[in-house]
Write a structure and sequence with these properties.
There is one protein chain. This protein is mainly α and 206 residues long. Helix content is 77%, strand content 0%. It starts with a helix and ends in a 38-residue tail after the last helix.
C-alpha cells in the first residue's frame, strides 16, 4: 500500500471517529433534553396534586360554613316567630324552616360539587402530566438510541468507502516476463549450428 492509501485510511478513520463522537454528543443532548422536559412535567403534576388537595379541603371548609349559615338563619327565623308569639314548631314556621334547610342543603351540595369538579380536573391534569413525562422519557431514549445507531452506520459506511478507495490507490505490481514467441528478446541468444556425419565445416578447409 502506498503513502496515499495510508493517508486516505487515516483520514477515513478520523472521519468515522468524528461521526461516532458527534452521534454520541447528539444522543446525550437528546437524553438530557428529554430528562429536563420530563422533570418539568412531573413538577407540574406535583403542583396539580397539591392544588387538588387544596380544592378538596377548601370545599369541605366552605360546606361546613354553609351548614353554619343555614343553622343561624333557621335560628333567627325561630327567634322572630317566637317574638311574635307564634308557635315555631307548628304551621307556617315549620314550613319556612324546612324551606330554609332545603335551600341550605342545595347550597352545600353546590359547594361540594364545585370543589369535587375542581379537584377532579386538577387530578386529571396531574395524571396527564405524569403520562406525558413517561412518554417523553421513553421518546428521548428511543431518539438517542436511534441517533447513536445512525452515527455508527455512517461511520461504518465511511470505513467501507475509505477501504475501497485505498484499495483503488494501490500501485499495480509489474508482471513477470516469461518466454514467448511474440517476445523478440526471448530467443536473442545465438544458436549454435550442429553438423551431420557428412557435413564438413568449411573452416577445416580454410
Amino acid at each position: 500500500m502506498g503513502d496515499s492509501a495510508g493517508l486516505l485510511m487515516l483520514a477515513g478513520g478520523a472521519t468515522a471517529a468524528s461521526q461516532v463522537g458527534q452521534g454520541y454528543a447528539q444522543s446525550k443532548a437528546i437524553r438530557s433534553q428529554g430528562r429536563l422536559e420530563a422533570q418539568a412535567l412531573e413538577g407540574n403534576a406535583r403542583v396539580a396534586d397539591i392544588l387538588a388537595t387544596g380544592a378538596e379541603m377548601r370545599g369541605a371548609r366552605e360546606a361546613r360554613l354553609q351548614d353554619e349559615r343555614t343553622r343561624r338563619l333557621i335560628g333567627s327565623q325561630r327567634v322572630a316567630y317566637a317574638a311574635q308569639g307564634v308557635d315555631v314548631n307548628a304551621g307556617s314556621p315549620v314550613d319556612v324552616q324546612a324551606d330554609t334547610a332545603r335551600m341550605g342543603a342545595i347550597d352545600r351540595e353546590r359547594i361540594e360539587y364545585n370543589a369535587w369538579a375542581e379537584a377532579f380536573g386538577l387530578k386529571y391534569q396531574a395524571e396527564q402530566d405524569r403520562n406525558s413525562a413517561a412518554f417523553t422519557r421513553m421518546g428521548a431514549r428511543n431518539a438517542a438510541r436511534n441517533t447513536m445507531l445512525a452515527s455508527l452506520v455512517d461511520a461504518g459506511q465511511t470505513g467501507l468507502r475509505t477501504a475501497y478507495m485505498a484499495d483503488r490507490t494501490k500501485l499495480p505490481e509489474e508482471p513477470k516476463r516469461g518466454l514467448s514467441l511474440a517476445d523478440p528478446g526471448a530467443f536473442s541468444a545465438p544458436i549454435e549450428k550442429t553438423y551431420g556425419p557428412y557435413d564438413r565445416p568449411s573452416s577445416l578447409f580454410a
